[in-house]
Amino acid sequence: MTQRLLRGRLLTFHREPESGEDSGAYTYLEDGALLIQDRIIQNAGPFTEISVKAGEVPVTDHRPHLMMAGFIDTHIHFPQVQVIASWGAQLLDWLNNYTFPEETRFASDEHSALMARAFFDQLVTHGTTTAVAYCSVHRTSADAFFTEATRRNMRMLGGKVLMDRNAPEGLQDTPQSGYDDTNALIADWHAKGRNGYVITPRFAITSTPEQMAMAQALAREHPDCHIQTHLSENKDEIAFTKQLYPQARDYLDVYQSYGLLGQKTLLGHSIHLESREIDALAETGAHPVFCPTSNLFLGSGLFDHGGLRARGIANGIATDVGAGTSYSMLQTLNEGYKILQLQGLALHPLQAFHWATHGNACVLGLEDKIGNLDPGTEADVVILNARSTPAMALRMDRVGSLAEELFVLQMMGDDRAIEEVYVSGSPSKSTSDRSALAHLALDLT
What is the SS3 string spanning the chain? Predict the structure, then answer.
């Protein structure tokens, strides 16, 4: 039995704050403690109480830093780690010029394994303890992804993309091979340890109706798996989709007609939605995913978080690396704040940090496991240092509240603000930092 006691300023959310004054939505303790045993949070509360109950347990004191649940990224592309920050073009050109050529490299077992280590290092270094990832079309990429997730004991979701048209030959499967490979990957990885498989038709443009029918069969046969795809990111994409599926009422209807909408469905971007599509999202419980840095980088448009929320639709928020420009959920919240400001919606910092933790966990239906620091949940914890840079320290000298501190982290923070990360109760950022340096040294030689 392994026990660990973490001490620090504890912040955890129970529901989305309705405003900055909604103190019932969260618990904040100036001197809090987490008792971790066998990778699970056994107890949480004031340090004076928890330490007495814990007895002779090693204490790691993180004061004056904040302890929160690890960040959750609900849309990211594992094979795009080496095309992040590639110049120019909008969505379809960006895919053809950068993404598709890069993803062909993931046919290699060796390359997939190397990139998986680098990918997970970046996640941990930036405070992300759970992500929902697109792998490449190759089964090897998904195997490498889940192998590395298992080695680190991280709760990760992902799946190989299904794509049988409008892509280079080396990036196409067939309806049958995509179905067979997905079934095999589900058998090998889904619900094994902390892994979750996601059925992943990339988007309507790269899947024929025959493949969509196979995705429907997979969803019917594996109702406990999530489903992820892209929706209405770019106006040219929407027009092309309507050409390929002329019988569909709109873009979303492509997925809806194949039975792919439900509470486990994640729809990346969802920017340019028609009124019928919004009605369908509200009726089915499917979740749009806001990808602010990507939407700005590719010039795609402004996500209507306020309008969708007013319809009772629960949205995720995510980095969308590699079109997204940062692995940091702090920087993602930064750009998300600005996009919502352009629409007259001021995102309160308490709402922002809820979104990146408990909110995203609720979108995934995993709030009983991750996204908060309640007893019985998995011990994924991030330690945040709001004085991690000279500029932040200078600003913090004038901060007088928790909300102000969170806003400094949100607007000025990045991986440097991540003091430590605990994955399943084990300190992991220092290990990932050393691993990243080893990769760099290997590249230089």
Answer: CCEEEEEEEEEEECCCCCCCCCHHHEEEEEEEEEEEECCEEEEEEEHHHHHHHHCCCCEEEEEEEEEEECEEEEEEEHHHCCCCCCCCCCHHHHHHHHHHHHHHHHHCHHHHHHHHHHHHHHHHHCCEEEEEEECCCCHHHHHHHHHHHHHHCCCEEEECEECCCCCCHHHCCCHHHHHHHHHHHHHHHCCCCCEEEEEEECCHHHCCHHHHHHHHHHHHHCCCCEEEEEECCCHHHHHHHHHHCCCCCCHHHHHHHCCCCCCCEEEEECCCCCHHHHHHHHHHCCEEEECHHHHHHCCCCCCCHHHHHHCCCCCEECCCCCCCCCCCHHHHHHHHHHHHHHCCCCCCHHHHHHHHHHHHHHHHCCCCCCCCCCCCCECCEEEECCCCCHHHHHHHCCCCCHHHHHHHHHHHCCHHHEEEEEECCEECHHHHHHHHHHHHHHHHC
In 10 A of CB 414, how many CB atoms? 18
Average pLDDT over residues 163-182: 96
Residues 6+ apart with CB under 8 A from 91: 233, 234, 236, 237, 298, 300, 323
444 pLDDT tier (thresholds 50, 70, 90) = very low
Span 372-380, average pLDDT: 98
pLDDT at 437 over 60: no
- For tokens 């792919």, name the residue: 260
Q: According to the model, what pLDDT value does residue 95 have?
A: 86
Q: How confident is the model at residue 438 (pLDDT cuts 50, 70, 90)?
A: low
- Give me the pLDDT at residue 382, please: 98
Q: Which two tokens stand for residue 29?
A: 């303790």
CA distances from 199 to 105, 147, 244, 266, 435 (A): 22, 18, 21, 10, 30
Would you tell me the crossing angle of helices 139-152 and 109-125 to the nearest 10 degrees?
40
pLDDT digits (tens, 9 = 90+) for 17-69: 998 778 899 999 999 999 999 999 999 999 999 999 999 999 999 999 999 99
Tokens 């209405």 — which residue? Answer: 232
